[in-house]
Amino acid sequence: MRLASRRCMSTGSASLRAxxxxxxxxxxxxxxxxxxxxxxxxxxxxxxxxxxxxxxx
Length: 57
Hints:
Blueprint lengths: L5 H13 L4 E3 L2 E3 L3 H7 L9 H7 L1
Antiparallel strand pairs: 1-2
């Protein structure tokens, strides 16, 4: 797995900040609207549980 570069992370976080989806204050990350962030990122909760879903199939 390849990790994102600092430049890529900086650009991505700037976009999320501009859209009001995240707030960075010092070394703290605040997510003022979790539901909005999930919608913007097409969040799929089952993606995080692939092993348990595969075992059940």
